[in-house]
Write a structure and sequence with these properties.
Elements: H1 6-14, E1 23-24, E2 30-35, E3 38-39, E4 47-54, E5 57-68, H2 71-74, E6 86-93, H3 99-103, E7 107-110, H4 117-128, H5 144-172, H6 177-189, H7 191-204, H8 207-212, H9 217-227, H10 238-254, H11 275-288, H12 291-294, H13 302-309, H14 336-357, H15 361-373, H16 395-409, H17 419-424
Parallel strand pairs: 5-6, 6-7
Antiparallel strand pairs: 1-2, 2-4, 3-4, 4-5
Helix pairs in contact: 5-14, 5-16, 6-7, 6-14, 9-10, 9-11, 14-15
């Protein structure tokens, strides 16, 4: 007998992947599957609300699946009343007659000769694959329409996962929408490498303090650079010394304890992505668009947010990446790719969260619209799905692929992916 798992049998039953042949139960009754039922991922029978007919008699109820009939006893079902009302016991191998099934007139369907051998081979190929994407060599043949529909679900699921994190932030912030959005935005300004240090900074320098000084760029930079720990040493540059002096006053006023600057990473980053430049851009954003922080839920237009983020940093940072006084001739404005990254990782997620807290259809539609207007993200994860590249149009697709990769492909959760139904066939 092949090395079968119960979840494979559930998958086969759910997607009706049996041979197209007449079904006959162990007692010789003709079986027709009218509806396989709804898969139950909690305790109790495997499928609810199934509909079958036995010798022409229609039945509705629950169905239980096992690899072996004897697993019924191993799982303790004989003493569980939840299993007294099942209408069918589906097994791969019928190895024992069960008193409880006979007592309640439950028919048994054995699948051993009903599952195509090719399906088992394809399944074992997926499970034993050493490739990062187990179905990589077969993905191109999967139905495009089904794959696109699955991507829509994957994007929604990713937003739901991210919303759970924002919900935790919201609780920790005492139900403060402004501080919650501010934290989410700062994480996205740090991008993947510096997301956590930027999140810590949002706690050291809360949004309400920054907004009090939104009309003074010098003070904004002093608060952010000082809070991040970048002003704790001796500098020769006149402007940086001015920031230090300003921060000394603000630090005493707000009892600020600076972070250790060493937690911010510079190595392997292009200068345009240095955390110092991102902090300068953040200060300029607060200075020019404080309403973005005080009422973030009102910003639902991609074009409007994009225009806000096309921000140039203050005068010193137009020519510097660091605080060492060394000048650069490079362009230090926020790039299109960075803007899309920030929109998809902050505004899209926050609007989806805000919709859950304050139900309004336009917010959830705005969240999807923002993602669909952001450019598709090319990275090591999304490249794995290149055989379906003709279907990918926006960041909604790339975010969906990231979720598919992280929560299904790398965990070998192939049986939870409907695309696998085509591949296993």
């Amino acid at each position: 007998m092949p090395d079968l798992r119960e979840d494979l049998l559930q998958f086969i039953w759910q997607h009706r992947l049996l041979r197209p042949s007449p079904l006959v139960t162990a007692s010789g009754k003709t079986l027709n599957i009218l509806h396989p039922g709804n898969l139950n991922r909690d305790s109790g029978p495997d499928f609810f609300n199934a509909r079958i007919s036995l010798n022409g008699l229609a039945l509705a109820g629950n169905i239980e699946l096992h690899v072996n009939s004897s697993d019924w006893i191993k799982h303790g079902h004989e003493s569980d009343a939840n299993y007294d009302n099942i209408i069918l016991h589906v097994v791969y191998h019928h190895d024992v007659h069960l008193r409880q099934n006979e007592q309640h007139n439950v028919e048994v369907l054995e699948l051993k000769d009903l599952i195509p051998a090719e399906l088992i081979r394809n399944y074992e190929s997926l499970m034993h694959s050493k490739r990062e994407l187990a179905c990589g060599s077969q993905l191109a043949a999967a139905d495009d329409q089904k794959f696109s529909m699955w991507l829509q679900r994957m994007f929604t699921e990713r937003l739901e996962h991210k919303t759970n994190y924002i919900e935790e932030l919201f609780g920790a912030n005492g139900g403060d929408y402004v501080q919650t959005f501010y934290t989410v935005l700062l994480r996205s300004f740090g991008f993947k490498v510096n997301a956590f240090p930027f999140e810590l900074l949002s706690k050291q320098i809360p949004a309400n303090i920054l907004l009090r000084h939104s009309d003074n760029l010098l003070q904004l930079e002093a608060l952010l650079f000082g809070g991040a720990g970048f002003l704790e040493e001796t500098f020769s540059d006149k402007y940086i010394r001015q920031l230090q002096n300003e921060f000394e006053f603000l630090k005493r006023k707000y009892n600020i304890i600076p972070l250790k600057k060493e937690i911010f990473k510079f190595s392997r980053l292009r200068p345009a992505n240095f955390p110092t430049l991102r902090l300068a851009q953040l200060a300029a954003l607060v200075n020019s668009h404080p309403e973005l922080f005080s009422a973030p839920h009102q910003f639902t237009s991609f074009e409007e947010i994009q225009e806000c983020l096309k921000i140039s940093p203050g005068n010193y940072w137009k020519k510097h990446y660091r605080m060492d006084g060394q000048e650069t001739t490079g362009e230090l404005k926020m790039g299109e790719e960075s803007i899309s990254n920030i929109i998809i990782n902050s505004f899209t997620q926050f609007l989806f969260f805000y919709f859950r807290k304050n139900p309004r259809r336009d917010h959830v539609e705005a969240a999807f619209s923002l993602a669909e207007k952001c450019s598709f993200e090319k990275n090591n994860k999304t490249k794995l799905f290149s055989s379906k590249a003709q279907l990918f149009k926006s960041a909604a697709d790339s975010q969906a692929l990231i979720n598919l990769h992280d929560n299904y492909c790398t965990r070998k959760n192939c049986l939870k992916c409907p695309v696998a139904a085509d591949i296993l066939r």
